[in-house]
Amino acid sequence: MPRLFHRPPKYCLHRGTKQAVVSLAGQRVYLGPYGSEQSHEKYRQVLQDWHRRRHEQTPGGQQPPSEERLATVVTPAALRSKWRSGVAVSIDELVFVYRRHAREYYVKNGKKTREAELVVEVTGHLGKQHGRTKVEEFGPVELDAFRESLIDELDWSRDYLNKQVSRLVTMFKWCVKKEICSPRVYEQLKALGGLKKGRTRARESEGVVPVEDALVDETLPALPEIVAAMVRFQRLTGMRPGEVCELRPCDLDRSGVVCFYRPWSHKTEHHERDRVAAVGPKAQSVLGPFLDRTEQSYCFSPSESVERARKRAEANRRTPRSCGNRRGANRKESPRRTAGDCYQVSSYRNAIRRACNKLGLEVWTPNQLRHTAATEIRQRYGLEAAQVVCGHARADVTQVYAERDLRLATKVAEEIG
Q: Do 180 and 76 contact (CB within 8 A), yes or no?
């Protein structure tokens, strides 16, 4: 059956935010709460725009210029010359060149990071509402009105909304650096500030809290063997999920009783900070069976997990081997997805979520394991110890991860209160 390239975008559910979403030209367009009349109305508008753009042509009968062609014409240098000559630069033009900058700048280990995707998301919404507005005429009032519209349309949380708006302000700062607008624009937008808790209509997001060890222990039997080992290892070390996924034998210094793990890539390396994680005897016993491989191989491998599952299914086979399918007989010749050599944080998280749903338990995430470890370390050894183990540059960051121990306050209240 031929693939339909010209079918309209589909109304879908974005599970993470419970928003209705459509994919349009490779980008996500959020429509509002899933199933609401507001989202269906916006979906109808999206379909109308899609049909109009599909049949729209330039006066010469040719299609509008592609992004590659525009990239050779709309450049920071071209916009700088335009502004210096007294011609206004539009928000659409600024968004176009800044997106290209974000895709090139926010790259780590040769891959585009999540930051670049977030920039594309928020600038897309800005372009729809203020694309034809002149950069010099976009001030705090317009930015505040745009922010309020995002609350109504997308129902973003206050924290997420503040972060996205700050990315827009950063875009105008970059615009000043490239001499595409006057510094006054950036200074005025910066004066707007973020939304304060309890003084806005934006909803509050639920913070990440520690997960009870009893809940983790209940989940472990339903997890694949390798994922269960990752959970135990992270709980004992308090590492970030990405650091656990990318662990390799060559990154471990095993010369002493306590091993030291230096990740080849970590969250704060672009700030020129080093990251060293201590691995004690208990964590080493969990990690031991996964060190019998080449130095450059990942300790926790999805392909190895799949292979173990297939061997286990073959060992538990009830149908005689002369009947039914043989192992490998029903595989696709060119599968769209195959298990890789390194777990992604998302696949690690999804494996835990599936296990929790299978057992009917409350869903928890790998980040909560880090909070649990940090809280325990703070209770037993103090805030500084938790800061060192978690690899935070400032103690106030550790405060977010390590929940305050109220036992001391309770004791004081009992004695003098």
A: yes
**Which of the pair, 172 or 72, is modelled with greater confidence?**
172
Q: What six digits make up the tokens of 351?
A: 């494996």
Residues β-bridged to residue 157: 203
**64 vs 315: CA distance, rounded Å:** 60
Residue keyed to tokens 């004066």: 191
- Rounded to two decimals, what is the model's pTM? 0.70
The distance from CA 225 to its chain's CA centroid, rounded to whole angstroms, is 26
Q: How deeply is 234 buried, as exposed, middle or buried, from its count of CB atoms within 10 A (0-12, 13-18, 19+)? A: buried
How would you class 58 by CB atoms within 10 Å of its CB: exposed for 0-12, middle for 13-18, buried for 19 or more?
exposed
Radius of gyration of the chain, Cα coordinates, nearest whole angstrom:
26
Q: What is the DSSP letter of 295?
A: T
**pLDDT range class, residue 5, cuts 50, 70, 90:** very low
Roughly what angle, to the nearest 10 degrees, separates helices 183-190 and 158-177? Answer: 160
Q: What pLDDT, in 10s, does the model give residues 253-307?
A: 888 888 888 887 777 766 667 788 888 899 999 999 999 999 999 999 999 888 8
- Structure tokens belonging to residue 20: 């209705």
Q: At what angle do helices 158-177 and 91-105 cross, to 10 degrees?
A: 100
